[in-house]
Hints:
TIM Barrel, eight-stranded parallel beta sheet, 10 helices, 10% strand, 46% helix, 8 strands, alpha/beta
Amino acid sequence: MIDKLRGICPVLPTPFKSDGGVDVNALSALVxxxxxxxxxxxxxxxxxxxxxxxxxxxxxxxxxxxxxxADGRAPVIAGASAxxxxxxxxxxxxxxxxxxxxxxxxxxxxxxxxxxxxxxxxGHILDALPGLEIILQNAPAPRGSxxxxxxxxxxxxxxxxxxxxxxxxxxxxxxxxxxxxxxxxSLKGVIGGGGARYILDEYARxxxxxxxxxxxxxxxxxxxxxxxxGRTQDARDIYVRTLPLLALQAVYRMRLTKHVLMRRGVxxxxxxxxxxxxxxxxxxxxxxxxxxALGLMTEAA
Length: 301
């Protein structure tokens, strides 16, 4: 059993068939692609998985595929965000029954941003799921609640069983510094998000891990290893090379992730369910050029 989450833990996208159904075989291939790249963990489902477009049954079925394919080679972090704490608990129990030990929860916006309400919401979850380590996800608006670092610190002191914070508000760096400076000793680490667009700043401030999307995970693993080995200039060189593609990913989101994975020969299509901007021919050419510049193009454009 791992002691601490660290390194690159990508959020897996959900592949779909041409008829709109989920594609379990393609998801298994995505897990293998991530493992071959040397990832330190796998996250499913998350925002990048189009989680809001999945039914409860689909979430459970696909999580089982991820766990079965990973087969203990990397820890699986299950996303359990939902509109109410009872549904979070249902997702958590499903994950626990499959052997998951880390659960990531983004409190719904309906709970608000005041620490007292968040402590009550998360407390219900912790009471119902005593065997799981909880990762508190703090995503920016409009999808997330944009919690202040002061509120997060209050939550951590009140609920020491929250083991990690995934901090991805903008700018995340100062928030990470504040949380680490004021958190209780029970906090195991802060994890970066934001598509790894700010990963070096996050690492420099003490983040233990990052949860980017999957499309260039091998580059992110190489960056992470360079940083941890003290090769900071190598890490920065990789980082700078990835930024043009990640800037486009911030706009086109899952469509870019799936397009790139298709270009890399991992996915057969780039079908999405979520309402996401669709890149036109010029945007596709720009995406492909940036992917080629990284030396990661497999399928002919």
